[in-house]
Amino acid sequence: MLTPKKIKHRKWQKGRSLKRKIETRGATIAYGSFGLKAESSAWINGRQIEAARRTISNFMKREGKVWIRIFPDKPVTQKPPEVTMGGGKGDVKEFVFPVRPGRILFEMDGVAPEVAKEALRLAGYKLPVKTRIVSRD
Question: Which CATH number does the domain housing residue 96 bear?
Fold first, then answer.
């Protein structure tokens, strides 16, 4: 599962709402010919990224190349069940990547367009965001 090797601060604050904000960075295809673009916002964790990556590589029969453009580096904390108020912030439960609309999540190259589009379509089902398949113009 994807986790950072080292982080500056163990616990972060939640941050602002991701709704109605368009991504400005990572919004264009940089490496491959086809990409999976987010159309909605959510937090994506390492398990979801890995599930989508496996789906892509299995459908491609491990041909071509896949680029993962996101990495979960934001720690999310959670307190144990049935714990009363107070006692500080909870322990780090997982790491997530906050996705905004417009972000390219995966890119691929080196396979036929039909194979690439089907692989990305299947990978989109594994993610908690609405996605769209885009190609380099």
Answer: 3.90.1170.10
